[in-house]
Amino acid sequence: MPPILNRYVFRETFVTWVAVTCVLLLVLLTEQFARVLGDAAGAKLPKDAVMLVMGLGSVQYLTILMPVSIFLSIMLALARLYRDSEMAAIMAGGIGPASLYRPLMILAAVLAIAATWLSLDIAPAARRAIQEVAWEARKNISLNMLEAGRFIPLGTRNAVVYAEEVADDGRLTNVFVQTRDEEQVQVIVAAEAVQRNDVDTGDKVLTFLDGKRYEGVPGEAEFMVIAFAEHGIPYKSPEARPLKFDPEAMTLGELLEQEDTDAASAELQWRLSVPLTLLVLTVLAVPLSRSRPRQGRYSNIAAGILVYIIYANVLAAAKVWVEQGAIPKFLGIWWVHLLFLAIAILMLMHQHNSFRRMLHAWRQKSADKQSSGKGSPDEGGSDEGEAA
After folding, report:
1. Domains: count for the chain
2. To bridge 172 with a disulfide, which of 7, 163, 181, 351 should be the other Cys (CB 3.0-4.6 Å)?
3. Does 125 lie in the same domain as 20?
4. Cβ neighbours of residue 208 under 8 Å, at least 6 residues apart?
5. Which residue range forms the structural domain that includes residue 171?
6. Taking every pair of C-alpha atoms in the chain, what is the biggest distance, in angstroms?
């Protein structure tokens, strides 16, 4: 294909890829933003760590989006060429669809290198950092994370605390606290509350000012009511267990050290599958994008999305089978890539009438053999007649 056409197809696909990636990433980040805000409101995450978690999450999403975005961008770009009859003009010049792979594979190779780097190094590091932030939040939970109008758990006690207002210095106004010990329930209502630290024990003490304490069993008439000017409840932050990263957050070196385990082997194959999936989808997108002139630009997108969903789900199922030891590690999830690559090659051969030409050549060869086989006895018979 002439260089000018290579540059044209490359530019069309690249611009479409940027647009598709931005749209998909924005959709995923919007959903993540709502979830992260919910965690921050529920005291599961420090408020000042929201943007950090969002940034780290975008790196993980980008790794997932690169294969599907290049797949959709190729289909959209080539579909426009088919719709506007530009592909018909290209083919009229003696250039077949197979020639499109040259500029597309250049773009796919660059993105595959970036996807490999993201999948093996950057994305696991981002997930590791997110888990560290969540672990620190559980370890250092305090009333400073309390949001006005929200119920949050109070340390290791079976309790919840609510405040109508939360000042910058941590002072709470119109506080409600409920603790439960089996059937016994204690409720404290106070005008104000402050957090203090016990120097001797190191425990945090929630001190209530000007309030009442109610003790009793729900459903019974007898309740003890105590009015107080000052009342304190000691509580401890939950003892954070030693941070243990899941396989998705392990470094490449840690995975290689534990490669004999099913979980580590499955995770390593999954990470290496990201660039492989990108390349296989690039090959698959060309035959899937073929359409008749003047046909709708998005007519084949639904079929392409269905193919990707099947591909992704079979990959996920294969990963689970490797984790469970249901299939050998050497087979792993590689067979899924080989299967869809074979499907792409068969589709290309079908569109180029390769099967018909192969069948015609086989029939012609068989006919030539039959004609040559029949001609030999006739020639021999004529020679014997002449000799007689």
Report:
1. 2
2. 163
3. yes
4. 175, 177, 188, 190, 192, 193, 228, 230, 231, 232, 233
5. 143-235
6. 140
Q: Which residues contact 39 (CB under 8 A, 6 or more apart)?
A: 45
Torsion of CA 249, 323, 272, 51, to 10 degrees: -30
Nearest-angstrom CA–CA distance, 14 and 106: 11
pLDDT of residue 334: 93
pLDDT tens, 25-81?
998 888 888 888 777 666 566 677 778 888 888 888 888 899 999 999 999 888 888
At 237, the amino acid letter reads S
122-165 confidence digits (pLDDT tens)? 988 888 888 887 777 666 555 555 666 777 766 545 778 888 88
Query: What tokens appear for 75 in the block?
Result: 């289909």
Cα distance between residue 370 and residue 376, in whole Å:
10
- Are 134 and 158 part of one and the same domain? no
Residue at 119 is within a domain: yes
Q: Are 180 and 193 in contact (CB under 8 A)?
A: no
Query: How many residues make up the chain in this entry?
Result: 388
Q: Which amino acid is at 86?
A: E
At residue 229 the predicted structure's pLDDT band, cuts being 50, 70 and 90, is confident
* Same structural domain, 268 and 341: yes
Inside any domain, residue 376: no
Whole-number Å distance between alpha carbons of 68 and 308? 7
- Averaged pLDDT for residues 317-342: 91
Residue 215 and residue 340 in one domain: no
